[in-house]
Design goal:
By secondary structure, the protein is an all-alpha fold. 79% of the residues lie in helices and 0% in strands. The longest helix has 46 residues.
């Protein structure tokens, strides 16, 4: 009782700060969540990409590859790996040109990696498409509405079809037209 009565009073700034943290996007739980300098670097990399109009392209590539990174985090990770490769190859080969070539290879390799993972996911989705359409048709024949059939696919289909239809269902629930959500 004494601590409650004489303790530090709660200020609205403290309450607002705690409530504000619930409404803001969360930071990554990985390396970017632990180190403040990496979060700042990711934010500045993302703003630099936004200034050049590349944020949407990077974000869609990461989303297609199902990599849980923000565009700024991906940029910082690729540049960080390139810097490590630069330092290692410069030290090992004792030439600046070798380090520059290694850094360029790592940057291009990271881009190719993301594109390759996205292409594999797309190919797997396309391979599952006949079964998905069969599940949709069976659900419609059973008396489900189109929305219920899409939800059934989002719950019963294997990955990556489940993820894509789940994303479409989330967008539909938020008020996006079904045609647009399914097209994306």
């Amino acid at each position: 009782l004494v601590v409650i009565l004489l303790g530090k009073p709660r200020t609205t700034a403290g309450v607002q700060g705690r409530l504000g943290s619930l409404g803001t996007p969360t930071t990554s739980k990985g390396v970017f969540g632990r180190f403040a300098f990496l979060r700042r670097a990711a934010r500045s990399a993302e703003s630099a990409a936004a200034d050049r109009g590349a944020t949407n392209m990077i974000e869609s590539a990461l989303e297609a590859a199902n990599l849980p990174l923000k565009p700024g985090e991906a940029i910082v990770a690729a540049v960080g790996l390139a810097l490590v490769a630069f330092v290692l190859f410069t030290a090992l080969l004792q030439t600046l040109v070798g380090g520059i070539i290694a850094a360029a290879v790592v940057l291009i390799g990271s881009l190719l990696f993301v594109n390759n993972v996205a292409a594999r996911s797309k190919k797997k989705f396309e391979a599952q498409l006949p079964d998905t359409l069969n599940l949709l048709a069976t659900s419609l024949r059973a008396g489900y509405s189109l929305l219920q059939a899409v939800e059934a696919v989002s719950q019963e289909a294997p990955e990556p079809t489940r993820r894509e239809f789940g994303r479409a269902m989330a967008e539909i629930r938020l008020g996006r037209p079904m045609n647009d959500a399914l097209a994306d």
